C-alpha cells in the first residue's frame, strides 16, 4: 500500500516509517519545512519526503493524494503547555484535522490511523487499570482536542464511510525521543543523568504512569492498519504502572550510580495515576507488548550514550 505518515520524521513516525518500508509499503512522509530526514534512504526504499504546512488545505490535500492509509501523528502542542492557549490548540490541531479528513474523503483514502492520548483523555481515573469504556474527562486542552478528533473520525466514518482506528497510547519511550521538547520523562531523565545534571521532579515522585517501548507502539500501528470494523478505539500501553521514583531507581541501577533528585511543587494538571487496560488490543488486534521496561530503558540508554559519543 501507499502510506502517508503525517509527522513521519518525528520520534514515533520515523520508527513507523522504517517498519512500513521493511514490510514493502510505499511511504510518503509529511513534515514541516526545514525538518531534515532522520536518515539516508536507500534506492530500493519507496519513500517520498514532502515538506508542507499542516494548516494549509492545499498542502494537506497534496500529501493525501494517491495514498491508501493515513497515519495522523501530528500535534502542535504538548499536555504541559496546551492549557496556555486552548484557542491555538483547537485551531492548529482540531481544525487542521478536519481539513485532513475532508481531503481524505475527496481522495478516497481507505483508512486513517490516529494517535490519541491514553495519558490525558481519561482525566483522573476512577478505577485502575483504565479501560476504553472509562469516562473521558480530560484536564488539559491537549486531551480535549484529541478526544474531539476521535469524535470527528467517527462522524466521518458514519457520514462518508472513512474507516479509522484510534490508538490511545500511554507514555511511549525509546531511541530518537527528543529531549529539547520534553517529549517524555524517560528521555529527559536519562539525558540529564548522563550529563551529570540534577533531575527535577514535580511533586513527591509518586506520580505513576504506564510506559510503553517504541517498537511495541509501532507493532500496534501496523496491526491497527490491518484491522477492519469494530472496535475502533484501543488503549496501547504496558498495562503496568511505575512511579517517577521507581523509574529513577531502575535508571540508577542501569547507570550503576545514584542521580541527584530535586523535588518541586506538584503541578495541578498532573493526574496522580494512569495505567491502561490493554486487554482489548490483546483480544482484538492480537497485540501484546514484548519489550520489558528494563530492557527498553537499557536500549534507550545505550542509544543516548552512542549518540553522545559520535
Short key terms for the protein model shown above:
310 residues, Rossmann fold, alpha/beta, 18% strand, 7-stranded parallel β-sheet, single chain, two-stranded parallel sheet, 40% helix
Secondary structure layout:
Layout: E1 2-6, H1 11-22, E2 26-31, E3 47-51, H2 57-64, E4 69-72, H3 79-82, H4 86-106, E5 111-117, H5 141-160, E6 163-169, E7 171-173, H6 185-194, E8 199-202, E9 208-209, E10 211-213, H7 214-225, E11 233-236, E12 242-243, H8 244-255, E13 261-264, H9 279-285, H10 293-309
Parallel strand pairs: 1-2, 1-4, 2-3, 4-5, 5-6, 6-11, 7-10, 8-13
Antiparallel strand pairs: 9-12
Helix pairs in contact: 1-7, 2-4, 4-5, 6-8, 6-10
- Strand percent estimate: 15-25%
CATH class of the domain at 2-173 and 213-237 and 276-290: Alpha Beta
Taking pLDDT < 50 over at least 5 consecutive residues as the criterion, the unreliable ranges are: none
Give the averaged pLDDT, no decimals: 95
CATH superfamily descriptor of the domain at 2-173 and 213-237 and 276-290: NAD(P)-binding Rossmann-like Domain
Secondary-structure element sequence?
Answer: EHEEHEHHEHEEHEEEHEEHEHH
Gap between N and C termini, in Å? 36 Å
